[in-house]
Design brief:
The complex is a heterodimer of chains A (236) and B (294). Helix content of chain A is 38%, strand content 27%. Chain A is built from ten helices and ten strands. In chain A, strands 6-7-8-3-9-10 form a six-stranded mixed sheet, with helices on both faces. A four-stranded antiparallel sheet of chain A has the order 2-1-4-5, covered by helices on one side. In chain A, β1 (4-13) and β2 (16-26) form a beta hairpin. The longest helix of chain A is centred in the C-terminal third of the chain and has 16 residues, at 169-184. Chain A is globular. Chain B has 294 residues and is mainly α. Chain B contains eleven helices and four strands; from the N terminus they run ααααβββααααβααα. Chain B has helices at 2-31, 38-54, 60-83, 93-114, 141-163, 165-175, 177-182, 187-212, 222-235, 240-261, 266-280, and strands at 119-120, 130-132, 137-139, 215-216. Chain B has a two-stranded antiparallel ribbon. In chain B, 48% of the residues are buried. The chains are: A alpha/beta (236), B mainly alpha (294). The interface between A and B is medium-sized, with 27 and 19 residues.
């Protein structure tokens, strides 16, 4: 059984249909990429999965539980963390306070402390800046903080929305290395990216979204060699 | 000597404004709305104390406790019934107008139940007045209790917000509701808690106000409510220390204005100062610059 299963999802903004019946699944341990142009509906799908918006039709099942209409704050404690688009770190909180906020649903102080050390190990820069206000960090550091904050809830599945957005090429590489190491650490990753080349290079499988529908899906390496994908998303 | 006693009276009145302003500023910071019914919760608190001490014969402190519990519940109910359904309304005006409606509702219910006559209120304070400087200056028990309550509330509230999980959740919701949800914070419950605290504080403010100025009618909460709103804006709306500073400054300006300039113009002076402050620093004394996030 798939860890996350999305079936016939339809989402509307008022009368406008943003998602026109998509189905896909994420298996444990996989890195799945959703790629597509601006406005294709990638973020809408993520927001529906993590409970920020409710679909008109369709179901979202996480580890066998129907979470379609579950409020976002309950989904977090089921083991799904969401790194939102634009990082959305708490600017007036310190790095440390942001990380603690990520562990809001957890009560065992010792375990939280262990996770904190693990996050500091993965992101040494965050440890160096733990008392700095998050709003004063650079874009790349904020992205790392957003990821570290999501990891603090000790998720089984981490959902990332455009983690490379607005970052310099060197930082983009660094962020993708981190995503790979998060995956290697045993966390399943669902990734939404406009940087299709990078996303396909680290993903196991990928889905290509165009105006609310999947037009292609399959093995990431194969998609990378697909002519239509090359033309539309890889700029070749 | 008279200046000093005016100053202390000003701080005392300002403490009441500050306690009310805390409710305004917390609700604004967290729910991003102006709860114009907040002032009328003060009046409700006053009536609850009045009834429990006269009709039910409760000792004053028990009466205060009942009022705090009653207003806390009232605040949560108002939020749940009147404001929450409008949380995602397309216009933020909808909830503002509803708040004004709730304000009139509370005033008119009080009018219906208690009548329009001003009732005399027996101070709940039993602390004796102290006399200083060979009897040249007296500080009433009400003044002492009001200032002390304000200090205690400020300290407890600051500790609550900085040291508890629920307090941190409030700060997170005030910064970014969506991101707070993604941390697992129940935003509705956090907003409800904010209303509960604000309304409980309004009850305390009501008791202190009615003890210092011992009369009560259905409109008692209206003017202090507006002034506390001014105090919150003055200090920087959304900021808790700002509400405290704004409230106390406002009280001092009002009393000194009454004493040295004109007792009729005191309110006008208060509002004039507000206008000047907002012209010089539009976000208020401790207000943050609001950056539109893209």
């Amino acid at each position: 059984m798939a860890m996350l299963e999305i079936k016939d999802l339809e989402v509307y903004y008022g009368v406008i249909q943003a998602i026109k019946g998509v189905s896909f699944e994420v298996n444990e341990g996989e890195v799945i990429a959703l790629i597509g142009a601006n406005g294709a509906g990638k973020t809408t799908i993520l927001h529906t999965i993590t409970g920020l918006i409710a679909p008109k039709k369709g179901t979202v099942t996480f580890e066998g539980t129907d979470i379609t209409r579950m409020p976002a704050h309950k989904i977090v404690s089921m083991g799904m963390a969401h790194v939102p688009e634009g990082r959305r770190v708490f600017a007036d909180f310190t790095v440390y306070q942001n990380l603690k906020m990520g562990a809001y649903t957890r009560n065992d102080k010792k375990e939280v402390e262990e996770t904190l050390q693990m996050v500091y190990e993965r992101f040494p820069r965050l440890e160096e800046r733990r008392n700095q206000l998050a709003g004063t960090l650079s874009g790349g550091e904020q992205q790392m903080l957003a990821m570290g904050r999501a990891l603090m809830s000790h998720p089984k599945l981490i959902v990332m929305d455009e983690p490379s957005m607005g970052l310099s090429p060197i930082l983009v590489n660094e962020i993708f290395d981190i995503i790979q190491s998060v995956s290697a650490g045993g966390t399943t990753v669902l990734l939404v990216e406009q940087n299709a080349k990078k996303a396909l290079s680290i993903a196991d499988r990928a889905y290509v979204l165009e105006t609310g529908n999947f037009v292609l899906s399959g093995d990431a390496k194969e998609l990378m060699n697909d002519d239509s994908v090359k033309k539309a998303y890889l700029g070749e | 000597m008279s200046f000093l006693s005016y100053l202390i009276n000003g701080i005392s009145l300002g403490s009441v404004y500050a306690i009310i302003a805390l409710g305004y500023t917390m609700v604004y910071g967290i729910a991003k709305m102006l709860n114009f019914a907040h002032g009328d919760v003060i009046m409700v608190g006053g009536y609850v104390v009045l009834i429990s001490s006269t009709s039910l014969g409760c000792p004053p402190l028990l009466g205060v406790l009942i009022a705090v519990i009653f207003c806390t519940v009232l605040g949560v109910v108002i939020e749940r019934v009147a404001y929450r359904p409008l949380r995602n309304a397309s216009s933020s005006l909808a909830v503002l107008i509803t708040a004004i409606g709730v304000s009139y509702l509370l005033q008119n219910l009080a009018l219906l139940i208690f009548g329009a006559n001003t009732k005399s209120f027996h101070s709940v304070v039993t602390v004796p007045a102290i006399t200083l400087a060979d009897g040249k200056m007296t500080i009433s028990g009400e003044t002492i209790v009001t200032i002390l309550s304000c200090i205690v509330i400020m300290v407890v509230l600051t500790l609550f917000i900085n040291r508890t999980k629920a307090g941190q959740a409030m700060l997170a919701v005030s910064e970014d509701k969506g991101a707070a949800q993604l941390m697992g914070i129940n935003v509705n419950r956090t907003i409800g808690l904010t209303f509960a605290i604000g309304s409980g504080l309004a009850a305390i403010a009501g008791v202190l106000l009615c003890s210092a100025y011992p009369s009560l009618n259905p409109y008692t909460g209206s003017m202090p409510g507006i002034k506390a709103f001014v105090a919150a804006v003055f200090g920087g709306i959304g900021s808790i220390p700002g509400a405290m500073i704004g409230g106390i400054l406002l009280g001092v300006i009002e009393i000194l204005g009454k004493a040295y300039i004109s007792s009729q113009l005191a309110d006008a002076i208060v509002f004039a100062v507000l206008i000047i402050v907002l012209l010089v620093k539009p976000t208020g004394i401790l207000g943050k610059k609001i950056q539109e996030k893209v």
